[in-house]
Amino acid sequence: MKAYLSRIVSCMAMLLLPTALAADVDTPYYRIEIIVFSHADGRPDGHEVNQLQDFSALTDPLIQARRAALPSADELHHGSDREVDIRPAPESSDDAASRQAQQAELDAVLELIDTLADLEEGTLMPELPVWPEPYLALDRLSPKMERALARLEDSTGHEVLSWQAWHQPLASGTAGERVRIHDDRPITADWLKMTPTGTIIAAGQQGRDIKHLAPTWHYRLDGGVQLRQRQFMHLESELHWRVRHEPSRWTTSLELDTETTAGYRVHRMNQSRTVRPGRLEYFDSSWLGMLVLIEPIAPLDGSDTVPDEAVNDMD
Questions:
Q1: Rounded CA separation 179/290 (Å)
Q2: Of 104, 165, 190, 311, which cross-links 33 as Cys (Cβ 3.0–4.6 Å)?
Q3: In contact, 252 and 1? CB cutoff 8 Å
């Protein structure tokens, strides 16, 4: 048994070590900050639609941060007054050979624990840099973006609609996740639907228990951005400004039920262009504007400086 568990330990070490080495330690991490605003004298060039585009599948830093803040299972059970019986199970036999076998198993388990501890401490593998959790909403903007936000809020020509900040990795030749950008003004929600076979659908998920299904929320400002690292860094943005049409008192119930009656007016800002880390970038349309600041960051543990790839992007 001890030899068997030892082989398991060896296999785990062989599996874990290549995994750690395969991780690109030179992959740059960035802090992304975005402020979205509207022009007070802008003219939305929107068009009428009956159905809003759904952005709920995109990575939402706000939802990610809320999930990360939820207590773990250990924390939920911490402090419980439930009594736990920790008495050892009685031996099935007093035979000396059986006790020796059990001791051998215990020694093998202790050896496994020591090996895993060495793996965690980096004794058996190179120490990797510690980066912040990606795609979690940050509580505040950097001083540079705080000043930009204050100027926009003090301006009579602009209205700040939303701001967002997060960290994310971005290696050369890759694309980051599409990140959802929205305000706090939901204008509608897709509630429960039911297929002809009786399957409940909500938020794109199927199930039969309504308690575990939530609606899909659509916001007044909604959309997403995505970073791509090619020869240069690119930012692709798609933002929608949506206004619900309020029916007039002359609108009949028949008109409200027809599919030809547009329920929303949508202004879109779709732009994709090169951006440079460390420089304040400005995206603009006739109605919406967006300020973007992308800056490379160093590991949390100070084990390394900013990767050369990120520094080169700033040159």
A1: 15
A2: 165
A3: no
